[in-house]
Specification:
- With 133 residues, the protein is α/β, with parallel strands linked by helices.
- Helix 1 (9-20) crosses helix 3 (45-55) and helix 4 (74-82) runs parallel beside helix 5.
- It has helices at residues 9-20, 39-42, 45-55, 74-82, 107-113, and strands at residues 29-31, 88-90, 95-96, 104-105, 122-124.
- The chain contains 5 helices and 5 strands; from the N terminus they run αβαααβββαβ.
- Helix content is 32%, strand content 10%.
- The strands form 2 sheets. It has a 3-stranded parallel β-sheet, with no helix packed on it. It has a two-stranded parallel ribbon with strand order 3-4.
Length: 133
């Protein structure tokens, strides 16, 4: 998630999609994967509250809201989220990929969040259709 795109049509679509799930999700929390270099400054309380409002959740349910997502720190980042109760919306900058960059969530990261001792719905934002090359 990138602060420069906060409130764009995709954020509204994410919130609409989540709202359509109704009772399917419980205790939904967002995992925003903020990539901004100055994350703590730009993702202040107002920005996090706006993001949460677009998703239809409370600002308290935005996890890792003061953490910049970095490729090298991904294990710690997702381990810190894996033990949280409830369902998760993972919001990477771009989507799912086996590539190891900071704009994508990897299948292994998702496996960390889908621990066998947790029963949860996991929603992942995918910016565009990916075609194998």
């Amino acid at each position: 998630m990138n602060h420069g795109h906060l409130g764009d049509a995709f954020d509204h679509w994410k919130g609409y999609f989540i709202s359509r799930l109704g009772g399917t999700v419980r205790d939904l929390r967002a995992v925003p994967m903020f990539t901004d270099e100055n994350c703590v400054r730009v993702w202040n309380g107002r920005a996090v509250a706006a993001y949460a409002g677009l998703l239809g959740i409370s600002a308290a349910d935005v996890l890792q809201s003061k953490v910049r997502f970095r490729n090298g720190d991904r294990a710690e980042y997702f381990d810190g989220v894996a033990t949280v109760h409830g369902d998760l919306f993972v919001d990477p900058d771009t989507g799912i990929s086996v590539r190891g960059d900071h704009k994508h969530v990897r299948p292994g990261d998702l496996a960390t969040l889908l621990r066998p001792d947790r029963e949860r719905v996991l929603i992942v934002y995918q910016h565009a259709h990916r075609v194998r090359q």
